[in-house]
């Protein structure tokens, strides 16, 4: 699986505007799944999921991971084509990753972190993330990691990160740290409330309430 994949096709951008297709991509980023597995997870009919996966497959948003023969049938397992999708239309990033960032901002607000991520900030975040992902991210390395057997998706993710850190030069590592610092400073500059709150009562409060 690639770290990042670029799309200029406006039809690909339209595809990820559908919430069911976005959920399919989210699930396939975590692990390889069949149409029947996706249908069960999303509480949809296999026919409906097949329709969505066929369109995503045609546009390169997902890909065939492997095929397994079960009796007289062949089960096809799919996976997302990349960790991050970036869509360019008129020179501006957007689409799937932009929607993902907006959902992340909403999730931060639920934690009590009031952050204002406007369109200009979104573009800056996407460009910084793009540069971060590009450091020592090679197709050969991704292929070698993905070809390892008996290792799950999350382990492969961590393995890829570790290998990157161990193989990049000191200069690349300094660039990586500088970009992370720029990203942190950008996010902090958009904070409107810095305190992370929790709706769950503290252990001491639970003790007092229970006597």
CATH class of the largest domain: Mainly Alpha
Instruction: Characterize the largest beta sheet: strand count, sense, and whether it forms a barrel.
Output: 3 strands, mixed
Briefly note the structural class of the backbone: alpha+beta
Number of domains: 2
- In the predicted model, the low-confidence regions spanning at least 5 consecutive residues are 89-94
- The CATH architecture of the largest domain comes to Orthogonal Bundle
> Over all CA atoms, what is the radius of gyration?
20 Å
Examine the coordinates and then state which fold CATH places here, giving the name of the CATH topology of the largest domain: Arc Repressor Mutant, subunit A
Number of helices: 10
Task: Describe the 3D structure.
- The chain has 211 residues and is an alpha+beta fold.
- The chain has 2 domains: 81 residues, Winged helix-like DNA-binding domain superfamily/Winged helix DNA-binding domain (Arc Repressor Mutant, subunit A); 80 residues, no CATH class.
- Helix content is 57%, strand content 18%.
- The protein has 10 helices and 7 strands.
- It has a 3-stranded mixed beta sheet. A two-stranded antiparallel sheet has the order 2-3.
- Strand 4 and strand 5 form a beta hairpin.
- Helix 6 runs antiparallel to helix 9.
Any chance you could write out the topology, listing elements then pairs?
Blueprint: E1 2-7, H1 10-15, H2 19-30, H3 35-42, H4 46-58, E2 62-70, E3 73-80, E4 82-89, E5 92-94, H5 96-110, E6 114-115, H6 119-134, H7 139-146, H8 153-167, H9 170-189, E7 191-193, H10 203-209
Parallel strand pairs: 1-4
Antiparallel strand pairs: 2-3, 4-5, 6-7
